[in-house]
Amino acid sequence: MITERENYLRTVEFRGPRWIPCTLGFSPATWQKYREELEAMVLRHPLIFGDFEKGSVNYDDLPLSYREGELYTDNWGTLWRNVQSGLEGIPVGHPLEDWSALDTYKLPDPLVWYERGEQPMDWEEITERVRTARSKGKIAWGWGDRFFERLHFLRGYENLMVDFATGVPQLPTLIHLVLEHNLMLIRRFAEMGVDVIGQGDDLGTQTATMVSPRIWRSYLLPGYCAQFEAARQAGAHTYLHSDGHILEIIDDLIEAGLSVINPQIGANGLEGLAEVCKGRICMNLDLDRQGVLPFGSPQDVREHVREAVERLGSPAGGLMLYGECQPNVPLANMESLCQAMEQVQML
């Protein structure tokens, strides 16, 4: 029997995995809504949730950015506001909204603070976590910071869009600062010998990329190339989550050295992802959390999983399944999703 780690690597590298890796994710709001009922469901499905321990989730202990009514400033100087408990807030104050602040702006130390700036990173604990994962036959993860999102958190979204359109001279300086910060963090994780370095950066709207492919290639793609190269040089795979429609830039990401893409099926379409990704890059497919998971029936959920596997799966590998469950997803649909994923893993 091969380990979870070996099967994951076979999937990413198209080396004939024994099963399709499947995971579910729950927002803090989902835990808050369903509480013990959700815990009981998780405990019923050890094939999906592994060694989950009863009582290990505190339903009401939320990070600052997930607390309703909270206003807080992160370690980058961005002001966040939250209006719904258990869901991440939004940035409402931007330290570089005026370019005059750039000359005196100081970035946080990437080796001291984690992305949301709430707790200092404990590198000894992280190193031990990597060792433990390896000893248990699991994937050892490292994480990079946001890149495109960090730029608009610092400048403000509309400001950044105007910057891209007008080519202001300060923009390359800001991009360089954020990139160097991210590279330090990636290299620190790479030194530990992690298997995968993951990043999250929402790059698309419902129907298109947030910036044109031309702007993307001029300003953003070189930064992703550098970050992926830093990870790959150390022997780690690269993983990128992105909400939204990104079909037009997936070729660029593949050429840049991305190993695993986590795209939304709802924004990109099953056929679009099959055409652009299948056989070329491993997908951790984000199942339809806009339609099927919250609004379909349990049978619709099972059919959705079956269709995804039939269209995108291959004995060579290259497909994983991910179900993100927000509080609008009924428990019955979560249960059906677990059952469908268990069937997939036993194929």
Please describe what this structure looks like.
The chain has 347 residues and is α/β, with parallel strands linked by helices. It has a single domain (4-345), classed as TIM Barrel (Alpha-Beta Barrel), CATH 3.20.20. It is built from 15 helices and 10 strands. It has helices at 4-12, 28-34, 36-43, 46-49, 123-135, 148-155, 157-166, 171-191, 213-233, 247-256, 265-268, 270-277, 292-295, 298-312, 331-345; strands spanning 22-26, 71-73, 79-81, 90-93, 141-143, 196-200, 237-242, 260-263, 282-286, 319-325. The strands form 2 sheets. It has a 7-stranded parallel sheet with strand order 1-10-9-8-7-6-5. A 3-stranded antiparallel sheet has the order 2-3-4, with no helix packed on it. Helix 9 (213-233) links the parallel strand 6 and strand 7 (237-242). It is globular and about 60 Å long.
